[in-house]
Write a sequence for this structure.
């Protein structure tokens, strides 16, 4: 089951037997015994049915949540040992997020929303502005930079959200169904934007339940009932077998 | 440092871009600071009005009424009392009946009018605080030497067509020729005397005899008026002190405190209650808005805002709202004070320190009220917020 590649110096994120259990009665094991690694600049898709634990995994990767078991290392540092302050600093410097919803602040313009992602960095205002404008250009919405989210289409909002993540120049870009709300054509465009703009050395992890999208990605992980496996196999099995996912 | 500036900018943006939320949040503070400023302004204005009508002058003036036998000698005895600074004899001739007065040495003439005549000893001129617009006062020597002189009130002078005492014009009062030595333009007391002719005691006797009841105007040291009012009659008429009555001013300190005490109690109760309401309003609305902004806060945490930065943002926003409420409330308070005061014919008086301090008071209330919501906001985990 485990498709972990042995941890090496080259790996950026390394998970060893990582699990996440939500307490309750009965407790939910949203993720169990996940072991894999992500190299710098790697593009990785995570595929699985709804409720299989994809978001749980992505949130753990991005330090929005902490594992309840196992060992997760970022660039060799054990996450479990980090203080809240250090985790926050890592999120600010190291991770960029794109969620299913764009989560733009409605009272801020597109550009201000992008700049928001840079505020924890303590950059000079001029540099913050430059980076924001550059990122908006990369995703092709420069012409909307003074628009409020309410004045933009869903696709444009999502591009602004991607620009917010890109402007942070993260080491790892974590995308949780970034095209979930968009039609097929738009979602392909948005996705292409993501992959095109993935500079060298920026790893991209994209969660999706769309096999069409997943097929275009160089590497895939499947999640099924909280269990992670390399390749799309487990996902495809579950799709074709009756009662799949109830193992 | 740049972090704080950035946070200030962000808080200001949040306040400005959400005017309805800001206004709702500030409402309590507006009311509180408004009530505070208004009550304070009204207290100040009211007590100022009290001081104006019961000023130091009236508070230090005692007037005695006595028989026509009261003399300068009696007044001199009163003046020796500790606490009396000046005292003088005053009386109205012929019971304030106007007497015929004409310009020039002859009784008849084109400019004859009826004017009241008041007798005043030279010391009385000082006691009433008379001010000359031209010429000089008569002195004790003039009275002793039976000089036939007079002063004109400025109103009477213009009625007679005399603009200045230059050249000592002559007037004729009931057939007696008098030399005008000065024109009195104002006085702090006995202002009705300015409407007529003022003459020294000897001249008064010549014109109307010595039948009229006398008044003694005494100026006292601050706070001595009540005492002089009690002791004065015995000094003025040792044998029949009952014939002399004293008119003392109301005690200004008790009066002022009578007006001020309930107002300052009202002030402290109202402003405390108001600040409490403002505090609760800001706290409640901020807690509400933190709940509403869970996903915003979660996003900020996700992109790397620390707990402290989240808390700081919420506190700064609350402080900004408080300041806005303070400024708005003060403006309303100042306007309300001006309106109510002028309605009561008071001069509106505001404590400028207070007016300048009100925005800071608002900031203080905002910071205090923002603390608890800020702690709650800082506890929001990015996960929980982004899921909802
Ligand atoms: N806070 C929580 N408390 C309890 N259970 C949770 C919590 N969050 C998620 N779960 C459970 O964990 C499992 C995995 O959830 P997760 O959100 O990771 O699924 P997913 O693969 O992202 O699904 P989707 O494609 O619908 O987004 C689900 O069964 C879910 O009910
Ligand atoms: Mg999900």
């Amino acid at each position: 089951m485990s498709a972990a590649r042995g941890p090496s110096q080259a790996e950026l994120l390394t998970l060893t037997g990582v699990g996440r259990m939500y307490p309750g009665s009965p407790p939910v094991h949203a993720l169990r015994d996940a072991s894999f690694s992500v190299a710098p600049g790697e593009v990785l898709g995570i595929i699985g049915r709804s409720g299989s634990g994809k978001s749980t995994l992505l949130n753990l990767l991005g330090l929005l949540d902490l594992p309840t078991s196992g060992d997760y290392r970022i660039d060799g540092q054990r996450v479990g040992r980090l203080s809240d302050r250090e985790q926050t600093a890592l999120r600010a410097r190291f991770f960029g997020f794109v969620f299913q919803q764009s989560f733009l602040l409605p009272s801020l313009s597109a550009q201000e929303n992008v700049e928001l992602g840079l505020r924890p960095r303590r950059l000079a205002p001029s540099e913050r502005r430059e980076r924001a404008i550059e990122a908006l250009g990369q995703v092709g919405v420069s012409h909307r930079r003074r628009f409020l989210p309410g004045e933009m289409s869903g696709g444009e909002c999502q591009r602004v959200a991607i620009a917010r993540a890109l402007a942070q120049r993260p080491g790892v870009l974590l995308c949780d169904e970034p095209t979930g709300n968009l039609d097929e054509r738009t979602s392909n465009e948005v996705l292409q934007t993501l992959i095109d703009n993935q500079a060298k050395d920026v790893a991209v992890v994209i969660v999706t339940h769309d096999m069409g999208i997943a097929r275009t990605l160089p590497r895939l992980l499947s999640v099924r009932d909280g269990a992670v496996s390399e390749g799309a196999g487990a996902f495809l099995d579950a799709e074709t077998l009756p009662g799949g996912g109830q193992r | 440092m740049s972090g704080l500036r950035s946070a200030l900018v962000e808080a200001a943006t949040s306040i400005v871009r959400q005017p309805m939320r800001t206004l709702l949040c500030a409402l309590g503070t507006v009311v509180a600071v408004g009530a505070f400023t208004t009550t304070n302004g009204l207290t100040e204005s009211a007590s100022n009005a009290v001081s104006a009508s019961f000023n130091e002058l009236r508070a230090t003036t005692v007037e005695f009424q006595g028989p026509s036998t009261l003399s300068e000698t009696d007044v001199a005895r009163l003046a020796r009392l500790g606490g009396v600074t000046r005292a003088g004899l005053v009386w109205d001739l012929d019971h304030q009946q106007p007497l015929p007065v004409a310009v020039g040495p002859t009784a008849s003439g084109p400019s004859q009018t009826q004017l009241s005549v008041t007798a005043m000893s030279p010391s009385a001129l000082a006691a009433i605080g008379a001010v000359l617009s031209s010429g000089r006062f008569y002195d004790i020597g003039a009275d002793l030497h039976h000089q036939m002189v007079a002063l004109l009130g400025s109103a009477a002078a213009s009625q007679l067509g005399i603009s200045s005492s230059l050249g000592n014009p002559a007037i004729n009062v009931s057939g007696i020729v008098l030399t005008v030595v000065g024109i009195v333009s104002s006085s702090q007391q006995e202002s009705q005397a300015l409407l007529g002719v003022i003459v020294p005691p000897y001249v008064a006797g010549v014109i109307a005899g010595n039948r009229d009841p006398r008044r003694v105007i005494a100026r006292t040291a601050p706070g001595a008026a009540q005492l002089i009012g009690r002791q004065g009659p015995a000094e003025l008429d040792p044998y029949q002190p009952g014939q002399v009555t004293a008119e003392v001013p109301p005690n200004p300190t008790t009066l002022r405190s009578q007006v001020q005490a309930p107002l300052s109690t009202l002030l402290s109760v109202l402003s405390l209650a108001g600040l409490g309401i403002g505090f609760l309003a800001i706290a409640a609305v901020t807690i509400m808005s933190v709940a509403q902004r869970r996903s915003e806060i979660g996003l900020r945490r996700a992109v790397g805002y620390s707990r402290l930065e989240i808390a700081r943002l919420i506190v700064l926003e609350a402080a900004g709202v408080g300041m806005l409420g303070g400024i708005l409330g003060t403006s309303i308070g100042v306007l309300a004070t001006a309106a109510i005061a002028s309605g009561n014919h008071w001069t509106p008086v505001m404590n400028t320190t207070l007016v300048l301090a009100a925005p800071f008071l608002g900031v203080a209330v905002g910071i205090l009220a923002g603390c608890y919501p800020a702690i709650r906001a800082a506890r929001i985990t990015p996960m929980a917020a982004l899921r909802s």
